[in-house]
Amino acid sequence: MAQESTTLTTSQRTMQYPETKTVDVTDDYHGHRVADPYRWLEDTESEETAAWVEAQNKVTQAYLQSLPERESMRARLEKLWNYERFGLPSHKGDYYIYSHNNGLQNQSILYKADSLDGERQVLIDPNTLSEDGTVALGSTVTSKDGKLLAYSLADGGSDWRTWKVRDVATGNDLDDIVRWSKFSGIAWMPDASGFFYARYTAPVEGQELTGTNENQRLYFHRLGDDQSKDTLILERPDEPKWGFSPTVTDDGRYLVIHNWKGSEPKSQVFIKDLTDPDAKVEPFITGFDAEYEWIASVGATHYFVTDNEAPKRRLIAVAVGQSDRENWKEVIPESDDVLESASLFGETFYLGYLKDARSRVARYSIEGNFVDDLPLPGVGSASGFGGRQDATETFFDFTNYVTPSEIYRIDLTTGETSLWRRPETPIQVDDYVTEQLFATSKDGTQVPVIVTRHRDTKLDGSNRTLLYAYGGFNISLTPAFSPANAAWIENGGIYAVANLRGGGEYGRDWHEAGMRLNKQNVFDDFIAAAEHLIDKGYTQSSRLAVRGGSNGGLLVGAVMTQRPELLGACLPAVGVMDMLRFHKFTIGWAWATEYGSSDEADQIENLLSYSPLHNLKPGTCYPATLITTADRDDRVVPGHSFKFAAALQAAQSCDNPTLIRIETRAGHGAGTPVSKRIDEYADLWAFLLDNLQ
Question: Of 10, 360, 652, 677, which residue has the fewest beta carbons closer than 10 angstroms?
Answer without folding.
Answer: 10
